[in-house]
Amino acid sequence: MGVKTAAMTLAVAVASMGWSAAAAAQCATVDPAVVPDMRIDPLDTTGAAQLMQPATLNFRRTGADATPLTILYQILDEDSPVHARVGASAGPQVEWRSDDTGRDISVSRGDAYALLRSGKITLAPDETSKQAGVRLFLKELREDLPAGVYREQFTLRYWCGDDASAAMPYESPGIVTVTVQVPNVLSASIAGASTRGEIDFLDFATLSRSLSVSVRSTGRYRVNARSLNGSVMLREGAAAPGLAERIAYSVRFGGHALGLGADGGFVNPRAGLAGQQIPLEVTAEDVSKKRAGAYRDTLILTLSPVS
């Protein structure tokens, strides 16, 4: 049986759309812009509800065309859940507004109505460059943000001409740099707002007593404590207290043993903006062989942010 062969020729046609990146020349470039660093303290309840920082976008005409040039522009937020950054979905919340319209010009790639949120500038025939003023608003300053530095480089998207539906947009990735610093700060109090408290053992019927320390912090903090009497309660009025006039005790903070000295501290995790009620527990030794009287010591508890 003979072997039959067949040849097939495939013709591939490439159609050209009405406009394309090659057909539409880029009308302008944009200079990199850096917004001055911003700092927020979520624990500062006396501060402003939002911060504003002005910035400038500088557009430069390309080519020798001397006709009026209109540019529509917006700032693209490309937040990622992997990194805590400045933007709409992670990190400090921001909003961009153009000075020419006052509208919010920050959009995401999935924004269905992106063209309704854009700024506009027009270069006259004799202008080779022009600046557009924008304002960055840092919002929700009371959010529970962990301490750290939040940084993002925003993409600028722009169109050549005043009809964005008839042109392809251009993008300048990472053209606008924003840095927001959240310091590691904390506040602590006893019984609501006081920095002093008292643990009264009464008649020592119970050898372990405690009080609550309210802690709010944006980051980790170190816990240290020291005793004015060397980790013992001394009987008041005793000239030279002996063993029968000294009551030793131990301390626990949040369930962790706390040594009374420079080397006896430890680091606690971030308490957050909502705060935590942490028990400070003091346990005395057996007092059956101690002399009658009032015993006292002063315990100094120090909480300090860890950088």
Structure description:
This protein is mainly beta and 307 residues long. It is built from no helices and 21 strands. It has strands at 28-30, 33-34, 38-39, 51-61, 69-77, 93-98, 106-108, 119-123, 129-139, 148-160, 170-182, 186-190, 208-217, 221-227, 232-235, 246-253, 256-257, 266-268, 272-284, 295-296, 299-305. Strands 2, 3, 5, 7, 8, 10 and 11 form a seven-stranded mixed β-sheet that branches. Strands 12, 13, 15, 16, 17, 19 and 20 form a seven-stranded antiparallel β-sheet that branches. A four-stranded antiparallel β-sheet has the order 1-4-9-6, with no helix packed on it.
The helix content is under 10%
**Could you tell me the strand content as a percent range?**
over 45%
Give me the Rg, rounded.
33 Å
- Which sequence of SSEs, written as H and E, runs from N to C? EEEEEEEEEEEEEEEEEEEEE
Coarse structural class: mainly beta
Mean pLDDT: 85
Number of helices: 0
CA distance, first residue to last residue: 86 Å
Q: Give the total of beta strands.
A: 21
- Taking pLDDT < 50 over at least 5 consecutive residues as the criterion, the unreliable ranges are 1-23
Biggest β-sheet: count, sense, barrel? 7 strands, mixed
Shape estimate: rod-shaped
